Amino acid sequence: MLIPAFPRLLLWALLLLSFLPAAGQTLKVTLLGTGAPIPNIERFGPSILVEAGPAKLLFDCGRGASQRLWQLKIPLGTVNTVFFTHLHSDHVVGFADLWLTGWLPGVYGRRAAPLRLFGPVGTRAMAAALKQAYAWDLNVRTEQGPPPAGATVAATDIAQGVVYEQDGVKVTAFDVQHGEHLKPAFGYRIDYAGRAVVLSGDTGFSDNLIRFAQGADVVVHEVAAARPELLRTSETARQILSYHTQPEDAGRVFSHIKPRLAVYSHIVLLTTDPAIPPPAIQELLPRTRSSYAGPLEIGEDLMTIEISQEVTVRRFGPPSR
Ligand SMILES: [Zn+2]
Predict the structure, then answer these.
(1) What is the 242 CA–ligand 1 centroid distance (Å)?
(2) Residue 296's beta-bridge partner residues?
(3) Separation between Cα atoms, residue 267 and residue 300, nearest integer Å
(4) What are phi and psi of 311, to 5 degrees?
(5) What is the CATH number of the domain that holds 48?
(6) How far is the CA of 88 from the centre of ligand 1 (A)?
(7) How far apart are alpha carbons 30 and 48 in whole angstroms?
(8) Tell me, what's the pLDDT at 31?
(9) Is residue 100 in a domain?
(10) What is the pLDDT of residues 121-179, one digit of tens each?
(11) pLDDT above 50: residue 16
(12) From the CA of 129, how far away is ligand 1's center (Å)?
């Protein structure tokens, strides 16, 4: 059938529009915790919330993730999907809190459907063991009335590949380099409405991350640094840095990907010797600049990054240390 020229143009325009992200289809990233194992009041344990359409996806659930969510007045019960990058305790230690507190009938909780959990081999076993560990609480509270479905964890052990696809949101897990003894460890790529954010998880320099991050708008990457005198004297410090990324290497990663914005989270300022203080956070920027000249933010707890036509960064309060 022959379509007259004007309607044909209109059809093309509509087709083109359907491929562009509609207004309001923003991919929003909130750094709930930008710290590492150190029990720092200003940098809580690793946890990143990604909001894409109606989905609220949580990546890692470190210490204090639930407090940070409620600081934003996000009921814990509305976060119904969690992804673990790996099973190091600093990345998962807040999970039981999110799971159980999010099930309570208070306005901060009220989860009524199962909490989905994805992670490397061992995740299912951990969920089963937690259920046993908290059996007393689960039994007592179920008798008091909260819907039992909300206390269910539907856990899946995953491998590299697409692990979640729903309502236009696609989550892809990819292997990263967190050391020979720390396998598997994943980074994640989240695609939504033509935008993409990549989260590194814990890793040293990773070619596979660079491969999976091609075309990503924002890359949130871990970083670790120590004073040279500590690295000279401490085998433990050298070992820890060998499976994390120093600023110069992170800069190389960003230079390969060329994102619209690179962000540091999971910031490790190493201190293993009481006589040697950790490096200053101010050192991260110049050290990264030796290999990367593009846009870069040092992440802070509750920093949000909105990705649409623009990439907008907002801080929650005054810069933290
Ligand atoms: Zn780790």
Answers:
(1) 12
(2) 262
(3) 9
(4) -110, 115
(5) 3.60.15.10
(6) 5
(7) 6
(8) 98
(9) yes
(10) 999 999 999 999 999 999 988 887 788 899 999 999 999 999 999 999 999 999 999 98
(11) no
(12) 21
Polymer length of the chain: 321
Residue, of 2 and 48, whose pLDDT is higher? 48
Model confidence over 275-311: pLDDT tens digits?
Answer: 999 999 999 999 999 999 999 999 999 999 999 999 9
3-state secondary structure of 27: strand
Using omega within 30 degrees of 0 as the cis cutoff, is the peptide bond preceding 318 cis? no
Is 8 within a domain? no
Determine the distance separating the centroid of ligand 1 and the alpha carbon of 205, expressed in angstroms: 14
Q: Give distance in angstroms: CA of 245 to centre of ligand 1.
A: 11
What is the pLDDT, as a whole number, of residue 180? 81
Q: 86 is in which domain, residue-wise? A: 27-309
pLDDT exceeds 50 at position 20: no
Residue 112 Cα to ligand 1 midpoint, Å, equals 32
CB atoms within 10 A of CB 12: 10
Q: Stretch 5-30: mean pLDDT, rounded?
A: 61
Q: State the distance from the centre of ligand 1 to the C-alpha of 301, rounded, in angstroms.
A: 19
- Flag the least confident range among 62-76, 169-183, 214-228: 169-183
- The predicted structure's pLDDT at residue 18: 47
Which of 84, 77, 86 lies closest to 118 in space, CA to CA? 84
What would the pLDDT profile of 266-275 be if each residue is shown by its tens digit?
999 998 899 9
Task: Write out the two tokens for 109.
Answer: 């909780």
Compute, in angstroms, the gap from residue 87 CA to the centroid of ligand 1: 7
Distance 122 CA to ligand 1 centre (A): 15
Q: Does any domain span residue 73? A: yes
Could you tell me the distance, in angstroms and rounded to a whole number, from the CA of residue 190 to the centre of ligand 1? Answer: 20
65: nearest Cα among 91, 87, 86, 84: 91
Task: Evaluate whether residue 20 is within a structural domain.
Answer: no
DSSP state of 148: G
CA of 206 to the centre of ligand 1 (A): 14
Per the structure, how many domains does the chain have? 1
- Cα of 169 from ligand 1 centre, angstroms: 26
Cα(240) to centroid(ligand 1), Å: 9
